[in-house]
Design brief:
about 40% helix, Arc Repressor Mutant, subunit A, Nucleotidyltransferase, domain 5, two-stranded antiparallel sheet, about 325 residues, 5-stranded mixed β-sheet, alpha/beta, 9 strands, 3 domains
Length: about 325
């Protein structure tokens, strides 16, 4: 018996054949059962011979499944998670680390898709975190940030030392040309003198001039010997944040960004002295008197009401120049 079937036109979309429908496949199988060869069926159906063979072998319609291919970031999930935590959710910095450390050049969108589950975990942890408040005079959080800005008509890289009192949120800012130990010493001592007293604790990040080793699992910390001596001299207890958990020191982390955005963004200065004078004005006239977003009070009011009296006096330890290369007296 001869079966007469009208040939179907070849349909193409963007240079590729359109996927066969279940009805097309049923017709292929009827033609095959009637004795037509693979080539004849392919010509009449307007598809390739391999397509006909695949459906004939399967005995019916099989939905097309795109073959799974390993992502360019396959096997890097733990590394991506750690770097996203380290860079506080900044996927673009993670992308830069990928190219520098693994030689992988991928788009930002690729990285964002890969770290999406870790970002959700990071946001959930932020929401679940209970804000840790400190008592008046208890803690000073310190950190460095850097930026490039116009000074005397040239783009100059400056390093901003930012210290924030844990209770009142009152800030102190100083400018340096580097972040070596001498800058840390000068910044801390400058903050003590600016506030008129010492806190009991210094909360720091894991900066190399201060911390030589910090195990994220055991929380074992080894401070730099000179920094340890510095803290003994000033009789303050140093505490280091857990690695890659910047929200532990969030008050000062946000303080660095606040200084960059509010104090110096869009400004140009005739000299470094002019920048320092501007920051002194800004601390007094802007940062101290603003309504703080967390406390709902101006930092200077909280400072005067409770924190100033809680700070320990400066009369005990005497200032030792960090640039002199000498250890504080009690360290030797």
């Amino acid at each position: 018996m001869e079966v007469v079937v009208q040939a179907l036109p070849i349909s193409e979309t963007m240079g590729r054949q359109v996927m066969q429908t279940p009805e097309d496949v049923a017709l292929m199988l009827r033609l095959k059962a009637a004795g037509l060869g693979i080539k004849k069926i392919a010509e009449r159906m307007g598809c390739s011979k391999n397509t006909v063979r695949r459906y004939v072998r399967s005995g019916g319609y099989v939905a097309y499944k795109r073959p799974e291919r390993n992502s360019a970031l396959h096997g890097l999930s733990p590394w991506l998670n750690e770097r996203l935590q380290r860079h506080r959710g900044n996927a673009d910095v993670v992308r830069q680390d990928l190219e520098r450390e693994h030689g992988l050049r991928v788009s930002l969108r690729t990285v964002e898709r890969a770290v999406a589950p870790f970002r959700r975990e990071l946001l959930a942890a932020e929401v679940a975190t209970i804000r840790f408040e400190t008592a008046p005079g208890e803690q000073l959080q310190i950190d460095f940030g850097e930026t490039t800005m116009p000074i005397a008509g040239e783009r100059v890289r400056v390093h901003l030392f930012v210290a924030t009192l844990g209770y009142s949120r009152r800030p102190y800012v100083a400018v340096f040309s580097h972040e070596r130990q001498s800058a840390w010493w000068s910044g801390i001592e400058g903050a003590f003198h600016h506030f008129g007293g010492r806190t009991r604790e210094l909360l720091i990040d894991n900066a190399k001039p201060l911390v030589t080793f910090h195990d994220a699992q055991t929380r074992e910390v080894r401070f730099n010997e000179r920094f340890h001596a510095f803290c003994r001299y000033w009789d303050v207890l140093a505490k280091a944040c857990a690695p890659y958990r910047a929200r532990t020191k969030g008050k000062d982390e946000r303080g660095v960004g606040y200084v960059k955005r509010n104090a110096i963004a869009g400004h140009a200065f005739e000299s470094l002295a002019a920048l320092e004078a501007h920051l002194a004005w800004w601390m007094r006239e802007v940062a101290d008197v603003r309504i703080h977003g967390t406390t709902g009070e101006p930092p200077i009011e909280r400072f005067n009401a409770k924190e100033a009296a809680a700070l320990r006096p400066l009369e005990g330890p005497q200032h030792v120049s960090a640039d002199s290369g000498m250890c504080p007296p009690c360290a030797c």
